[in-house]
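User: Hey, quick favor. My workstation is busy. Could you predict this chain's structure for me?
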Amino acid sequence: MNTPKSTLTPTKPAAPASGIIASWVNFWFAPVDPVGLHALRVLAGLLFLFWLLPLAGQQQALFGLDGLFDAKAYVESSRLPDLPPHLFGWSATYLSANPVVLGVIFWVSIAAVVLFTLGVATRFTGVLTWVAVVSYTANPAISYDADPLLLMLAFYLMIGYLLLGQWGAGRSLLTRLLGPRETWLFHRPATGAAFGSGESVGANLALRLFQVHFAIAMVASGLHKLQVKEWWNGLAPWFYLNTPFGTTAERVQAYRPSPESYLTLFTLAAYLVLAWQFAFPAFAWRRGAWRAVLLGGAAVGWLACAFWVSLPLFGPILVVSCLGFLSAGEWRWLQSFVAEFPGVRSVLRRLSRVPDGSVLAGPKSGAVARAAAVSVGQR
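Assistant: No problem, here it is.
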């Protein structure tokens, strides 16, 4: 008995898109585990607090329109050429000259940054954190070269949490407006799930925007250095190490025994900085041994800023920004690695109320093990 053949032939699954266009689309819009966005939020939040808290008690003097830099100084200095545009934008501190109001604005800003760092109501506190960073970088009297990088971090983190998923059905209006509880730093995950394991296009887009912007900033900074002859002749480190008001005759005399060696070191340091900045886009997104170039350069920059150049804030900003280039798999591997240190596992378990055998129990558990394996395999 002949069985009639079906007229419907099975179709082969469509091959995944390939080529330049597909790579471009995947780079920007592929859904990813948002753990990188969460990690960058925590690190940036700690950085913002490290920057803001030393200003406590000085709100009236530093930010009041009748303080050390008053309204007249704003008007006169705004007429000066070649000043960064962010210095003369807007600020919440312009709302009032009353010391009480300025104090309230400051401590509300601190509270917003703390809550954002902890992941509470991230859509709302992310906007408030960005407002705080904009407001406290608008004063020319305390302007800092790294202020634009602070603004960059705050802006793209805000965008990331505004675009993060969890907008769909089944969510309350309050959750949609403020953000899901899954972003809380010590939120208890569902059984077998990892913190922030739901993939998100918004998280990827925000991180990619930040990465590209930061890479452009590194190259632009290198090009700006080439407009200064001291970077061409390799003497730029000398001026960072020997500031006009901090250099004494005795300090200069200390270079006399071996001036050629010092000049060689200064020149080598200057050219290495320029090479790292110009080559930044070539290695920032590459994995494997290139991560040592990315993070090693940032770590060296932090040490140099802390001990030699006297720019204590720039180093941490550089390291946090470079950590923003790590993939979700790399963050998961770091998470499991840190959780293996003695005492850390029990502390994390108590904070998040996660029982033994869960994602925090070690690299052999659940999603972290799979992510770690993928990360290692990609290397």
